[in-house]
Amino acid sequence: MQLAPFLTVEHLSEALTVWAGNDQCRQAARMPELATALYRATAYLGTAQPPVFVAFLSAVQSQATSDDSYYRYPELENALTAAGYRLEL
Question: What is the top-level taxon of the source organism (predicted)?
Fold first, then answer.
């Protein structure tokens, strides 16, 4: 999180793609909360930022089992929804 203020949209997208693709990262303890914190910490990226998180959320949710609500990243989904973004699965 310390480097969040230095991320570009491209770096953020690359990091979230790797995160979503790595089950040990995606399903590690506290990662859903960290994703939401990263979303908030990178808001300075403006309108280019939310679509990156929508794509990330779609990727992690498509890999989560239906009975595993925690690793469907509900807090991030709520933050995106509250900001007016819809997740399309």
Answer: Bacteria
